[in-house]
Structure formats: C-alpha cells, structure tokens
Amino acid sequence: MITTALPVFGWAWCFGFSDPVFRFQEKVMSYTSSLTRSFVTDLPSLIGQRVKVCGFAETIRDQKHMRFIVLRDPTGKVQLTQAKVVAGLSAALDALTPESSIIVTGRVVAAPSVKLGGLEVVIETGEICGLADARLPIAEDSGLDKWIDHRQVSLRYPGQQLVFAVQTTLEGAMRSFWKQHGFREIHSPKLMGTFSESGAEVFAVKYFGATAFLAQSPQLYKQMAIAGGMEKVFEIGPAFRAEPSFTSRHETEFTSIDMEIAWIEGHYELMEIEERWLTHAIAAIAEAHGEEIKQHFGVEIEPPGCPFPKLTFEEARETLEKLGHALGTRADLDSEGERILAEHMAKATGHEFLFITDYPAKHRAFYHMRRDDRPDLTKGFDLLWRGIEITTGAQREHRYGRLVAQATERGYKLDALSDYLNFFRFGCPPHGGMGVGLGRILMRMLDTPSIREVTLLSRTPRRLRP
Predict the structure, then answer these.
(1) Could you give the CA distance from residue 309 to residue 78 in angstroms, rounded to a whole number?
(2) pLDDT band at residue 404 under the 50/70/90 scheme
(3) pLDDT tens digits, one per residue of 257-284
(4) Taking a C-beta distance cutoff of 8 angstroms, is the pair 243, 201 a contact?
(5) Domain chopping of the chain, boundaries
(6) CATH class of 2-130
C-alpha cells in the first residue's frame, strides 16, 4: 500500500511556503480520518468543502506540473487534480495505474471547463489501496468468454454495474408485490434424497456414504408448504440442471423464482396473477432505471398491458404450420418455433408477451393436472417474452389417488416418490404455481444476446470457473 497524508492550505502554500511538510502530518491524518465518504453524486452540493472520495482510477493523464485522474465510483465519475509541486503527494501517486483502487481527500472546486459535472477535486491526500497490474487482462470490447474469465474487471463497466442494479430493483419489486398480496417466503433445501422433477438431468453428489441430488427446483417443497396450510408462498434461490445444452439461454446453475398459490380455480387464474406481478416489477424498473437502460442498452422499458395474449398449444401448432414452420409430432415448441410465433403475435397484437397453454400431458411433468374434458392435455402454460420461454407453470394435481395413477402411468417408482406423494395423503387444497428464470427475465429486459451477460458467474457444461 502506497500512501501519503500531506496538508495543503491553498495554492500559495503549494508553490513555496517554507513550513516543514511533516510538521502537520499528525494533525492532518487525524482530520482526514474523521471525514466520511462522499459519492460523486454528492459533490455538486459540496463545492468549497473538503471531502473524501473512494473508487477506481479510470484514467490518468500526466503533464509537467499537473496530474489529472478520473475517479469512478458506483454513482459516477469525477476529475481529480494534483499539483506535482507537492513532492510527497506526487511521489505517492507516481505509481498509480489505471483501475487501481484509491482513496483521496481534497477540496471540491467549481471548474466549468471540466466535462465531468463542471467541477473537480483538488487532491490534498491520496492513498493507493490496491495497485492494479499495469496491463489489464481485458478491454470493453473483449469477447464474452474473456469477460467471464476476468469477472472482477468486467463487472466494473457501467453497463454491468447497471445489470445488477436492475436485478436488485427487480427482486425488490417482486417482493413488494408478494408482500402486498399475502405471500410468505420459504427457503427449501437444495440437497435432496430423491429427485425434484423427473429424475433426468440431475447432479448426484456424495453425501456421507449415500447419494444426494442437487434440486432442480423447489417444486416438491412449495407443494408441501401448500399442503401445510401456507396458502401463498414464494422463493428466490439456486436451481441445478445437468442438461448438456450449449445455447445462449441455458445454464447448469441458475436462479429460479418460484410461486405456489392455494385455492385456485384453474391455470388461467395463475396467468392473471403473473401478468399483474410482472407488470408491477417492470414498472418499477422503468421508473428507477429507464433512462440508464436506454443509454447503455438502447432499450425502452415500458410496463406491458394486461391481459397478455394467449394461445393453446394446438392453436400455436396451427399458426406455425401456416407460417411454414411445422412441428411434426413434437408435443412442445422448439426454440425457432417460439421465436417465429412470438414475432407473429407481436405484430398481430402489439404485445411482447405470449402465453402458450394446455400442452399435451405426455411431455409435461406428471404432477400437472389434466383437463377433465381432455385428459391428454394439461392445465399448464409457458410464458414467452420476445420469443424466449421465461416461465413454466400449471395447476397441480392435488388428489393423492390421481397423482399415484399419473406417476405409475409414466413408469416412475413410487418408492422413490414416497416423500412427495405423502404430502397429499392428509388433505391438500387445489393449487398451482410457476417457476420463472431470473436470468432470462434480465436477458429479455436488457435485450442481451446471452444469459451469461446478465449472470454474475456463468455455469455451463464447459465452465466451472472462476
């Protein structure tokens, strides 16, 4: 750590008063340590005052008698000015490299010619807290893989800072909706003794001489909470899928947002709740970050209107066939079909969101409730946003006998499902819910080409580091 703490009592002192520099060191150190940190956005109201600012040295420009540093903190950038005639201070900052972390104290002065806010901070003391290597490993235009390899640097770019500010606001708005509507938060275990879904695509881990599995979703425990009388529950937490997918929207570990609601009358009620929940959250993003998102990502954030357009799977199949994209014998949509369908419906309705409902039962989870008039179809749905699935939901089968029958029909071993099935042996209300991918919401909201651009650290079949 390279540091200096030198008093500066105006420019006249800098240019030649003969008072010994270190005579006032103890006094100045005591004074500066009593300063509380100011952020860049605070500085316009602090002109003429001494401040302490902390951040990264984004750029450094040396002249014969002056040094100019652009300091960046989470709220913005400010120019720091240092007179090189102050020998001790100059020596301390001579080692400064771009992206080093620094603490500076100084006086805020008006400087109309300075583009960064029309002010600058005249440095009195400076401390290099973390000296950066002279050569940074990436630039702003480096490829995505390099960005992830050196995440501690790529996270510093303003666009990336904005991603996580948006994520924070988004989750806060979601929680405010849940609080307003009587939901309770749960934290389900991620180590399980049985499968949370079908048993496919699970990670097995050693567990004290036995085998445990990483949870694919909190599905089992959401339903247990409903059976236990908690009528509305939610969870935001990690989920794991051992899926060998290499697309721009799949990860092996991701953040899942889950809801489960009791006493519903059908899956259309669930869709109506999600419409209001998403509209509430997107409105909060528009208000808090709309201008910044437009500046950094070129996207206009507007809350969607309700209700969202809806097509049954059969209607979606027929529409795609007319558009020249036949699904053949598929019982779900492929990624290209989702894109084509969403674009078509956006033109027809002016809406970016689209629900696809009533999927064939054979390719949906065994616990999805079947339609009484069409047992081959489920009371389930997916939600597409600009052609990417962000939600899967359904009314669940809450009747023990029917659950056992549907599991047996799939060929599942009932012993392996005994914990789950027992949740329904002692009475359970009609209920349903959904799982939503946080990364996919951010990906669509900010219109990024890859989910890895809006994820703190990516996990894929080929990436387990850093």
Answers:
(1) 47
(2) very high
(3) 999 999 999 999 999 999 999 999 999 9
(4) yes
(5) 2-130, 146-454
(6) mainly beta
CA 5 – CA 267 distance, rounded (Å)? 66
Reading the block at residue 187, the tokens are 């934290």
> How many CA atoms lie less than 13 Å away from 116 in the CB half-sphere?
21
What whole-number distance in Å separates Cα of residue 219 and Cα of residue 213?
A: 14
The three-state secondary structure class of 169 is helix
* H or E element that contains 337: helix 335-349
- Could you give the count of Cα atoms lying within 13 Å of 342 in the half-sphere of its Cβ? 21
Residue type, 445: M
* CA atoms of 369 and 87, how far apart (whole Å): 77
Q: Looking at the predicted structure, is the pLDDT value of residue 27 above 90?
A: no
Residue that wins the pLDDT comparison between 84 and 124: 124
Angstrom distance (rounded) from CA 260 to CA 270: 9
How distant, in Å, are the alpha carbons of 9, 19, 24, 154, 307 from that of 13? 6, 9, 13, 41, 69
Q: Give residue 212's pLDDT.
A: 94
Strand order of the sheet with strand 191-192? 191-192, 210-214, 204-207
Measured CA to CA, the distance from residue 384 to residue 82 in angstroms comes to 54
H or E segment and range at residue 445: helix 438-446
Q: Which CATH class is domain 146-454?
A: alpha beta
Question: Three-state SS string across 103-126, please?
Answer: EEEEEEEECCCCCCCCEEEEEEEE
The answer to whether the CB of 76 falls within 8 A of the CB of 41 is yes
d(CA 457, CA 253): 10
Question: In this structure, are residues 394 and 383 in contact, taking their beta carbons and an 8 Å threshold?
Answer: no
11: left (phi over 0), alpha (psi -120 to 50) or beta: alpha
Which of 279, 312, 288, 331 has the alpha carbon at shortest distance from 441? 279
CB 145 within 8 A of CB 112: no
Q: Is 387 left (phi over 0), alpha (psi -120 to 50) or beta?
A: left
pLDDT band at 128 (very low <50, low <70, confident <90, very high): very high
Q: What is the mean pLDDT of the chain?
A: 89
**d(C-alpha 255, C-alpha 455), whole Å:** 9
Reduced to 3 states (helix: H, G, I; strand: E, B; else coil), residue 30 is helix
Q: In this structure, are residues 366 and 320 in contact, taking their beta carbons and an 8 Å threshold?
A: no
Instruction: Report the distance separating Cα 119 and Cα 185, nearest Å.
Output: 47
Site of tokens 């399980």: 192
